[in-house]
Amino acid sequence: MKLHLIFLTLGALFLLGLFADQFGRRTRLPRVTLLLLCGIAVGSSGLNLLPLEAKYWYEFLTIAALTMVAFLLGSSLSLKNLREHGATILAISLSVVIVTIAVLGAGLWAIGIDLGLALLLGAIATATDPAATQDVIHQAKAKGGFPDTLTGIVAIDDAWGVLAFSLILILVGLLNGGESNGGLLDAAWEICGALALGLAIGWPGAYLTGRLAKGEPQQTEALGVVFLCAGLALWLDVSFLIAGMTAGAVIVNFARHHSRAFHEIEHFQWPFMILFFILAGASLDVSALGEVGLIGLGYVVLRILSRIIGGWIGAVIGGAPREQRPGFGIALLPQAGVALGIALIAAEEFPAYAEAILTVTIGATVVFELLGPSGTLLALRKTAAAKSA
Q1: Core vs surface per residue 282-306: b (16+ CB within 10 A) or e
Q2: Which site in 29, 51, 164, 306 is 20 to 30 Å from 93, CA atoms measured?
Q3: 75 with 302: CB under 8 angstroms?
Q4: Are 193 and 276 within 8 A, CB to CB?
Q5: pLDDT digit string (tens) for 291-333?
Q6: What angle do CA 173, 177, 180 make, to 5 degrees?
């Protein structure tokens, strides 16, 4: 790609992101949705204005942006927050995963979908979009028990989702006459290896960072830890999301000398997020919406229903305040890259289901990426209004 095109593209995308940000502030629309719409407009589904080479930036920006998000989500898992909301976080995150698989699996099977395919789609539906959820919370400047609990849920629910997906892979393999424990072993390595890596980075980071600026880690320290964590996670083939979350949780709990444990990430995170969401929108194939058919419609409706039911059940079990219970499922509607990643794995494992899995997942991702953040914002506002009433 020619050098002048790189600068022109980056400059235009940053200004487009600034427009979306300011428009969101004035209209109170989720800026995540606005950025995705901008991406669709300039991408191949719209005006096709982006240079072809720009698509190669997406993988790097995705990993960089989501590792930063993971660090900030991990910082929500402080001992104070866990003491106050830990039982609720655990109950809701587990309930949403279990109910999503059960409702989608049974519902799709009931309308005539093969049981194996129905279970796989149910497992894919457990994935959320931590970046979108975290940004909506940040945009809304939400404070209190509900956003604190919600942040904790999105910090750990993808780990449950990966584990559940691996178990479903094995179950569907057995249903189709195969035998395999590779999926479970891979999931164990991805999760446990990421936890170990996060601990290995977070433990020394808790004591070594924040020494030069009176308890506030510098941007260079934060960037170094983020990129080191992402690079090692990719090299070791473990989850960079879980590794980043673990490192953030370790630092926030053990860096006693920190006054703002790694919140320097917030200062440079937003430019990465602008590029990430716009390029994510540009990569969405809107034409897939016309191809999903009955199975896609069933997936969308059942996923919304399962999130609401699972969130409410988990909130009751976890002892969440009554006014918060209806909001958790609605707030957990966004779905993005993790779903597409495990859909690709499922398609590779079961070629007979590949076309249906990818078509439904891509089409549903477009729907939930555009509408999901509005659900999160609505839940935050309704809960805040109920609390103040």
Answers
A1: bbbbbebeeebeebbebbbebbbbb
A2: 29
A3: no
A4: no
A5: 667 888 899 999 999 999 999 999 999 988 888 888 999 999 9
A6: 45
CA distance 221 to 219: 5
Q: How confident is the model at residue 215 (pLDDT cuts 50, 70, 90)?
A: low
**Furthest CA-CA distance within the chain:** 63
Cα 327 off chain centre by:
18
- List Cα–Cα distances, 203 to 24, 139, 207, 255, in angstroms: 38, 31, 7, 9
What is the C-alpha to C-alpha distance for residues 36 and 17, in angstroms, rounded to an integer?
10
Q: b/e map of 163-180 (b: 16 or more CB within 10 Å)?
A: bbbbbbbbbbbeeeeeee
**Cβ–Cβ contacts within 10 Å for residue 356, how many?**
20
DSSP string, 312-372: HHHHHHHT--GGGTTHHHHHT----HHHHHHHHHHHHH-GGGHHHHHHHHHHHHHHHHHHH
C-beta of residue 377 within 8 angstroms of C-beta of residue 133: no
**What letter represents residue 226's amino acid?**
V
Residue 286 CB contacts under 8 Å (≥ 6 apart), including other chains: 40, 45, 366
Which residue in this structure is represented by tokens 């999503």?
100
Distance (Å, rounded) from C-alpha 229 to C-alpha 250?
13
**Can you list the positions of beta strands (E) in 254-324?**
none
- State the chain's mean pLDDT as an integer: 82
Q: What is the CA radius of gyration of the chain?
A: 20
247-269 residue pLDDT tens = 888 888 887 656 555 566 766 77
CA angle 158, 161, 164 (to 5 degrees): 155
Give the whole-angstrom CA distance, residue 247 versus residue 240: 10
3-state SS string for 114-137: CHHHHHHHHHHCCCCCHHHHHHHH
C-alpha pair distances (Å), 113 with each of 298, 348, 362: 10, 19, 18
How confident is the model at residue 179, as a pLDDT?
Answer: 52
HSE-CB for 177 with a 13 A CA cutoff: 0
Give how far Cα 286 sits from Cα of 45, 343, 356, 364, Å: 6, 18, 16, 10
